[in-house]
Amino acid sequence: MNGVNMVKQKIADCLQQAVAKTQQEGSLAPGALPEIIIEHPQNPSHGDFASSLPLKLARTTRMPPLAVAEKIVEKISLPPEIDHTTIAPPGFINFTLRNEWLTEQVETILAAGDLYGNLTLGKGKNIQVEFVSVNPTGPLHVGHGRGAVLGSTLADVLSSTGYRVEREYYLNDTGNQIELFGHSLYVRYLQNFGKEADMPPDGYHGNYVIDLAKEIAEEHGDKFLNVPQKEAIEAITELGFNKIINSVKEDLLLLNVKFDKWFSEKSLYKGEQYNKVMALLESGNYVTKKENAVWFASSLLGEDKDNVLVRSDGSPTYFASDIAYHYNKFIERKFDTVIDIWGADHQGHVPRMKAVMKALGQDPEQLKVIICQLVTLHRGKETLKISKRSGDIITLREVIDEVGADACRFSFLSYSAESQMDFDLELAKKQSADNPVYYVQYAHARIASILRLAQQRQIDYSQGDVSLLS
Fold first, then answer.
1. Alpha-carbon dihedral of residues 229, 233, 239, 243, nearest 10 degrees?
2. 388: which of 138, 178, 246, 277 fits an S-S bond (Cβ 3.0–4.6 Å)?
3. CATH superfamily of 3-101
4. Strand partners, 393
5. C-alpha closest to that of 205 among 385, 390, 386, 392
6. DSSP 347
7. Please, which residues have CB within 8 angstroms of residue 229's CB and are 6 or more apart in sequence?
């Protein structure tokens, strides 16, 4: 347990003891003690930590929250790390750390190095974080970058708290979107040789498809003109798919985002995963047949309606693949917890996946879903488009090249996942007080400069008086 968490625990303990004293003396009515949560005050001037315990106790004691707070503070025995307490409306008890303790932490942090803050909360439990998992039909855009940074950061935090973490990218390498992408690429390949061909409805029109087709033509010549269309499309789809995935990996590495496993959706059907999970659902009477399709009986598990698993043409839906994928995660690979980071367009998918967990005999709480909201890209007052399908796209790589990987990571993490984000390219590059990224980079550069200067002058700063920092 690091210093901060230790202090928070001590504060919680002293609050618990103070409440027990007031109840024993009759100042507060006896009753069950609610959970004591120690948080940071919204206003930093109020102190370093705060507890809303008086607000919770006011309901059971039938006393004003401020009066409850006063009774608790009268009996509280502060831990040595705390300088003083204050009471703030409507019923908070605030705690301020001693400056001496804070300065001592500088030495503690320096001594611990990169290990400072590491915990053992996870106790070696297996946890999977699946993120990005974008259809491999085009380059990444800034919205994908947000999910990538969120996922990699979360995985790093979990790893440092004692979990065994696996970072996974789910490759959607089968299905309608891949077929559309492959057909679009085939058309551009034909056009590259002067052949007339029409793009499929809802095809991919981006310039990157034209560039990919040109690369394939340069590398393989006209050999796909002389084979049956189906065979040519399959071959070109695979070539294009591999090029896109390699590009995705390169883009993610620019953000220092790495994966332990790239899991193929196609593998669910080549093996027995899909058949196993369908048999399991059928044995639990969670599968019905109607309208020439196969349905998952979500309504039996509290959902408003059932959901299609297999279409009338015999092809499995995205939902069916996702069920098989999560069967693989929980039952085949036995992860204790799975965290999925999905885009905003998957919000409606969450309840039915929770229902699936019940059908698979798993606790729905083992599946955690984080919805990463949309990113709107700006250049000053101009709003930029990022649509792969239409071809109007500012790629993630272009954004990284323009503002830098550090600025991207910092900006993405400055917003909570559930908040929509405005990313201003001009602001991210600005060297002024308007740009927090610049201030962090400037502070780091100044500190590094001071340390270099000390080394040049052979100054030993290891025994410096850190109390002067306050």
1. 140
2. 138
3. Arginyl tRNA synthetase N-terminal domain (3.30.1360.70)
4. 386
5. 390
6. T
7. 186
* Closest to 400 in 3D by CA, of 149, 155, 204, 154: 149
Kindly provide the residue ranges of all beta strands, DSSP E only, lying in 311-461, ordered along the sequence. Answer: 337-343, 367-372, 375-379, 382-384, 421-424
Say which CATH architecture domain 126-171+258-372 belongs to: 3-Layer(aba) Sandwich (3.40)
Q: Which two tokens stand for residue 284?
A: 């639990």
Measured between alpha carbons, how far is 76 from 84 in angstroms, rounded to an integer?
11
Token pair for 243: 């090029």
Length of the chain: 470
User: Which residue matches tokens 């996870």?
Assistant: 122
Q: Which H helix or E strand runs over 92?
A: strand 92-97
The secondary element (H helix, E strand) that includes residue 165 is strand 164-171
Would the CATH topology of 3-101 be identical to that of 126-171+258-372? no
Q: What is the pLDDT of residue 350?
A: 96
Report the DSSP pairing between strands 92-97 and 49-51: antiparallel
Torsions phi, psi of 30, nearest 5?
A: -65, 155
Tokens of 88: 């703030």
Q: Write down the pTM of the prediction.
A: 0.82
- Would you list the domain boundaries of the chain? 3-101, 126-171+258-372, 176-254, 437-469
- The terminus-to-terminus CA distance of the chain in angstroms comes to 25
Instruction: Report CA dihedral (177, 178, 184, 187) to the nearest 10 degrees.
Output: -150
The mean pLDDT values, 10 residues at a time, for the chain of 470 residues are 85 96 90 91 92 93 94 96 96 96 87 84 95 95 96 97 97 94 98 95 92 98 96 98 98 98 96 92 94 94 92 94 97 98 94 95 97 93 72 84 94 94 91 87 93 91 72
CB 169 within 8 A of CB 245: no
